[in-house]
Amino acid sequence: MAQIRYEADADLARIQLKKVAIVGYGSQGHAHAQNLRDSGVAVTIALPEKSRSRARAEAAGFTILTPAEAAAACDVVMMLAPDTSQPRIYRDHVAPHLGKGKTLMFAHGFNIRYATIAPDRAIDVSMIAPKGPGHRVRETFAQGGGVPALLAIHQDASGGAEADALSYAKAIGATRAGVLTTTFSEETETDLFGEQAVLCGGVSELVKAGFETLCEAGYQPEIAYFECMHELKLIVDLMYRGGLNYMRYSVSDTAEWGDYVSGPRVVDARTRAEMKRILAEIKDGEFARRWIAENEAGRPQFETRRAAERELSLERVGAKLRAMMPFLEPVSIKPGD
Fold first, then answer.
1. Mean pLDDT, the chain, as a whole number?
2. What is the mean pLDDT of residues 159-178?
3. What number of other Cβ atoms are within 10 A of residue 89's Cβ?
4. How far apart are CA 146 and CA 172, in angstroms?
5. How far apart are CA 34 and CA 57, in angstroms?
6. How far apart are CA 272 and CA 19, in angstroms?
7. How far apart (Å, rounded) are the C-alpha atoms in residues 119 and 99?
8. What is the structure's pLDDT at 2?
9. Half-sphere exposure of residue 287, counting CA atoms within 13 Å on the CB side?
10. Least CB-packed of 110, 138, 195, 331 within 10 Å?
């Protein structure tokens, strides 16, 4: 069984006694910073001088320093910049200012797992990885709740790395929902697999394939969108609250029977074999090597694919329909965002 810790297992005072630098002010960065501040922690935002995020951080009332200045001034450095940016930031700006008594933290194990960052043995290295996007980390905290998180210790030079990480988790609200103990490797490998095979890659391809199948058969694109995209949230919300059993309890018997007889035809033995190959590429580092090389080359394939996906018929139809439903609070992503 997984070891899970809650509010009573963490001492908030430990992190309140430290100065924390948040490197990056994106999805996770803004949430961690604001939750920490609300929990009585001294927070500094670390951003390059030309970062587009500086205006948002300044508007939120934070002190902003360069990554080097923040690493020198703070006791804890939480790396929340994009995975592929972290090694350069760490090497050029953060590492020279970390020494005995300081802590390097992550919210994803990628760079420790694949050894693109190799911290000095004199420092604590830990991870608190919320299992949800940054806006939910902030929203649930403000509502009095929290998002579950994973905790891992890579180096415990001080003897207090775990207690400090738990204190940080409490300050961002994670202990309200539960903090599970793991390792950097387990977190990285399962996170990448879940994103690629199910949550992002798997779901995106399934939605696109369903939409295209209906449209190619002559059905109205708007109907195809509602059936293959819009209603997905309703089903996922049921799973979120009560698992597959509650979802099946809540839908019609016809839908439940279709689940049993048709689901295995879509996700069949070939799909499961491909999932195993995806996991193998994550574990042996092949995916990481390809992704790092793609970034070093200027991300040509990534940007080409991103541009093409934004022009899909599914996306155009969906944008039109969502605009007619203002209660959804629809958003639109434009090139350059």
1. 96
2. 98
3. 22
4. 8
5. 10
6. 46
7. 10
8. 81
9. 18
10. 331
How far, CA to CA in Å, does 322 sit from each of 221, 318, 325?
14, 6, 5
Q: What are the strands of the beta sheet with 42-46, ordered from one edge?
A: 4-5, 179-181, 149-155, 124-130, 103-106, 76-79, 19-23, 42-46, 63-65
Tokens 């000095």, residue located: 120
Q: Whole-angstrom Cα distance, residue 139 to residue 240?
A: 17
The DSSP 8-state label assigned to residue 246 in this structure reads H
pLDDT at position 297, please?
97
Cα–Cα distance for residue pair 156/318, rounded to 1 Å: 49
Q: What residues are annotated to the active site?
A: 108
User: Residues of 188-207 as b/e, b for ≥16 C-beta within 10 angstroms?
Assistant: bbebbbeebbeeeebeeeeb
Provide the angle, in degrees to the nearest 10, between the axes of the packed helices 201-216 and 313-323: 90
Residue in 36, 241, 12, 17 with CA at minimum distance from that of residue 137: 36
pLDDT at 337 exceeding the cut of 70 = no
CB atoms within 10 A of CB 269: 8
d(CA 308, CA 26): 24
- pLDDT at position 232 is 97
Residues 6+ apart with CB under 8 A from 68: 93, 94, 96, 97
Query: Percent of the chain, pLDDT > 70?
Result: 99
**For 11-36, what is each residue's pLDDT tens digit?**
999 999 999 999 999 999 999 999 99
- Write the DSSP assignment of 127-177 as a string of letters: EEEESS-HHHHHHHHHTT----EEEEEEE-SSS-HHHHHHHHHHHTTGGGT
Inter-residue contact 126 to 181 (CB < 8 Å): no
